[in-house]
Amino acid sequence: MRIFLIGFMGCGKTLIGKKLAEKIEYDFYDIDAEIEKIACKSVTKIFQEDGECRFREFEKEVLLSLSAKNKAVIATGGGTPCFEDNMKIIKKTGLSVYIKLSAERLAERLETTKKTRPLIAYKNKDELYSFIAELLKQREPFYLKADLIIKGENANANNIASLVF
Ligand code: S3P
């Protein structure tokens, strides 16, 4: 059994995933962190030096290898479910949980943490909100295919664990 946490950048996948894994005694994996290990450079550097297409190839490769792990909680990247057949792989190999937050709330949260995220690192406050609102509109149809949808405001390890088991 494996659990995939999906949702937009800044919705809390990594933090909640770590706590959830600890609680249910599963291993925790973060797709971005695994990509950085195999590429031997940061996500930002991969985008800068190799481009987004190469990043998406790494992302797919890591998703495929993590989708074979047992007893795993996997925090995906915000774009993971939205490229190629990644959402099909996620649905086929695990239970998916969408952590849903509004564009307003995401913009607030990302304002202070955008630096490590190449898609938004240099956007000012207004640009950030409109970029998020537009991209969320494009991506939500993928996220909404998740098995479970949980409001980000209420998402924590305890309530996800109780929904899953
Ligand atoms: C991305 C989200 C990031 C990371 C990369 C691209 C995206 O992950 O994979 O910067 O396309 O939304 P987080 O959702 O963990 O920030």
What Rg do the Cα atoms give?
15 Å
Order of helices and strands: EHEHHHEHEHHEH
Number of helices in the DSSP assignment: 8
The major beta sheet can be summarized as: 5 strands, parallel
Extract low-pLDDT stretches. none
CA-based shape: globular
Give the total of beta strands: 5
Ligands in the model, by name, code or SMILES, are: shikimate-3-phosphate
Assign a percent range to the helix content.
40-55%
Strand sequence of the main sheet, in spatial order?
Answer: 2-3-1-4-5
Helix-strand makeup class: alpha/beta
What proportion of the residues form beta strands (DSSP E)? Answer: 5-15%
Mean of all residue-level pLDDT scores: 96
What distance separates the N and C termini?
11 Å
Topology record:
Elements: E1 2-6, H1 13-24, E2 27-30, H2 31-39, H3 43-50, H4 52-66, E3 72-75, H5 86-93, E4 95-100, H6 103-111, H7 125-143, E5 148-151, H8 157-164
Parallel strand pairs: 1-3, 1-4, 2-3, 4-5
Helix pairs in contact: 1-8, 2-4, 3-4, 6-7
This protein binds shikimate-3-phosphate (S3P).
